[in-house]
Amino acid sequence: MSQHAHNDSHxxxxxxxxxxxxxxxxxxxxxxxxxxxxxxxxxxxNGTPMGGSGTVPDYRDPLFPGSNxxxxxMLGEIxxxxxxxxxxxxxxxxxxxxxxxxxxxxxxxxxAWEFTKLVSTASLWTGILGGxxxxxxxxxxxxxxxxxxxxxxxxxxxxxxxxxxAIVITHLYFLSWDRLTGKLKVLHVLLGVLTNVAGTAxxxxxxxxxxxxxxxAGLNPDGTLNSFKEAFLTYSWNPLNxxxxxANVAFGGGVAGAYAxxxxxxxxxxxxxxxxxxxxxxxxFIMISAMMFLPFAGYYLAREIYMYNEQMGVSMMGGVFSYLxxxxxxxxxxxxxxxxxxxxxxxxxxxxxxxYKGHSAWLLVILILCYAVWVTPRSLILxxxxxxxxxxxxxxxxxxxxxxxxKITAVMVxxxxxxxSFLFYxxxxxxxxxxxxxxxxxxxxxxxxxxxxxxxxVGIRGYFVPSQVRVNESVFQAIAVVAAxxxxxxxxxxMYAGAKSVxxxxxxxxxxxxxxxxxFLAVAFTWLMGLMGYIRxxxxxxxxxxxVLPDKSAGAFLPQYGTATITISVTVLLFxxxxxxxxxxxxxxxxxxxxxxx
Amino acid sequence: MSEVxxxxxxxxVVLKLMGxxxxxxxFFTGVGFYFPQKTNAPPAPPDYKKMKNMDELxxxxxxxxxxxxxxxxxxxxxxxxxxxxxxxxxxxxxxxGSRKPGLSATDYLFESVSKPSAFVVEGFGDIMKVPPxxxxxxxxxxxxxxxxxxxxPDETLxxxxxxxxxxxxxxxxxxxxxxPEEHGEKIVKEYGGCINCHAIDNDDPANKATYxxxxxxxxxxxxxxxxxxxKEDGKLVDNDAKYLFESIRxxxxxxxxxxxxxxxxxxFGGVMPKTFADPAEAVYMSETYVxxxxxxxxxxxxxxxxxxxxxxSFENPDLGQPKPKTLANSVKVRWTPEAVVxxxxxxxxxxxxxxxxxxxxxxxxxxxxxxxxxYEEARAHRRPPxxxxxxxxxxxxxxxxxxxx
Lengths: 598, 405
Description:
The complex is a heterodimer of chains A (598) and B (405). Chain A is mainly α and 598 residues long. In chain A, 71% of the residues lie in helices and 2% in strands. In chain A, the strands form 2 sheets. Chain A has a two-stranded antiparallel sheet with strand order 1-2. Chain A has a two-stranded antiparallel sheet with strand order 3-4. The radius of gyration of chain A is 25 Å and the shape is globular. In chain B, 28% of the residues are buried. In chain B, helix 7 crosses helix 10 (287-299). By secondary structure, chain B is mainly alpha-helical. Chain B has a two-stranded antiparallel ribbon with strand order 1-2. In chain B, strands 3-4 form a two-stranded parallel sheet. The chains are: A mainly alpha (598), B mainly alpha (405). Chains A and B meet through helix 4, helix 8, helix 10, helix 12 and helix 17 of A and helix 1, helix 7 and helix 10 of B.
């Protein structure tokens, strides 16, 4: 395999110790400078140090009504997206590195390095936007930031410490890649693990602030703090942690897949095409793996919201945000369609994959039916005359599909279909040599049909039992799907042990539209994050801290759906422009592809 | 192998991808515009200028009169025999015109609400020492409501409130910027209701307005609490922070002297709530509330009390706070029929597990009977499997609402 030429002195033989030390110092300096500059800006504008003493104005006049809140919305959202990427990618890149280390396959090591390179180059802009967010909060929203500082200011030092620790470890992890090899590789893997520990701690801390804003606790009736522990460990803290960790992995996989798609489409040699085709597949695989668990995490979060305050839950699902959940359904359905479409297209490059091509038809039909159920609203947008003709607000037949019993069932079936697509992909170029292969196939078919029956059966039963029972029993649908996937994969792994190969996967021979599918997945997922972030933030309605600190600013209103979607789209576009710039700047960093065979 | 080429193809790929991005985002944005477009704005305070009829004014006046923040219904009722501290409002609209010679019903009620000490109904004390309402229009709204009780509201009030300007808002220090002493003062004088029965009769002119020496308060004065003594094991000892904390937690445990205006006047139990330390009670006050009240009362004698240093705590064993006794395993926990119905709503194979978890919860509370309420509470308190690793996910002290201004 030819050497991939590089035009930079980085990384070919590893960075020198002095270089590493200086880069780490530079990383610490960037964090300190960002926070320092933010503090100076706040002090200059407010005339008082961070936290103030009640002399800072509650709000500042916006350029136009609501402009301050849109600025903060977009700043916060882009910062969150970059941070989610930075914290999500190391979660799976360390696993990829460990696979490479244990198997000796250099392509995994190179892939992990590529992933980490993306993270390393994104850190500066994440910090800049975080600093901007800080300045925005403390200057534009003095009342809100003063209150939050009162509650959480004591822990700010810990957060800064975590940031510095994370930056140091991440820099060390990335820069020492080629130095800590051989027997020292275990140290490098340890650094990767520590990177994840620090990143996870950062998420958990930030989640405490966000959870407090919409499910506050630990307060006296007048809003003064009674217990910091309760204010930190709120109803939504745990669910947010879990949901975000999983979503960050899926998001990181998606964006990494989009990066690979761009590199694939712009590749000028076969080695790059093969490598980035494979990287795109890995990104998609990571996204699918995490997406399978995301609905459960989201359900847990929604359940805790209902437990905290039923009125908030009802507003979320059936009130002012109800139509946005139709958008969410549309996006998630599109994501599942996109993931499956990519897998089916990938079968085209696998010799023997044509045996399973016919299955994509019925899988597609099921997916489309589930998608239709998933996006069917309970209440329709009707005129009075139409309501009169229909005999009510709800369609006599289709209205039944608008309830949660149908929707949970639909999404479980979509996950079920995706796991089948993945199983076909996994065995596409293999022929089993075990004598019980036919029986093995029957066993797997039985498992899948049984899980399908459980999903549908529990779904139908959901129409006839109280909602609390339905909610509890939906856990069995989830167990059925997950268990079916793991059991079938296990049977597959035994059945195809030592299997005959029909032919090697022809990496790099992918239709261009498959790469657009990868990009679509990244864009749709990012858009979904923006949408869900808006809903989570908007649950507070007209309060900064729900039920405690009312929002009396000019921007204290829930915008029209169209305004919200424009804001989210602009945010997503800005994010991808920024991430594109970041990835482009990261292309300067190159590494030898010697021994990297895909 | 060929060299790396920075080919012009890169630019086209980037352009194509940007175009694709725009199309996808544009599509989602378009879907957003398909739904009904409606802006949701927060409920605005009443706009008196836009009120259409007297019913709106009366309705708002009633809301004000019954709002917890105003505190009127602590002492006044409408046909409520339990409210004996102040005159009942039932029929006040009918008798207001003849209460005070020379005053019309409207003027009498206006004076009663804005300057209660100007005329005190016979048989009642001048105990309504509250700051004047900042917005006179709100006073007229309350007047119109009171007039509706047994009488007819004054129709001219609607035009009057429409023509009056809104008062200028005074900027107050936010609640979280208050010192413990300032916060304690706010609780004592505003939402704690303490000054209804206790005087703060020191030399501060601001405090003098809160009491009338001619009408002594029911409870002992709070001004010199840090300088007084109490009996402990038959001996007189100085009041300390621990005593103060205990007095608030269990007011009837040690009865002080000084009630009803007499220096050595005896005080009787059963007047104060049994305890302020029980979260299940409506009068619950958290430890931080009590600590800040203590800091304020101590400051009235010129002394400084640091609640954190004093380590005042409801759970402090020195204060003898009993913990609920766990029920022994030998005692059977019984279920009410309604609770059994709730248990049977679950799938059969899950019922034994749920039953044992609810019964475990009941035993921890020292209870031997599972009611529907206890069942709900037990289910709400169950922890997710990894709670001990990642945090409770649920908290004991949910905020009870209220507003931090």
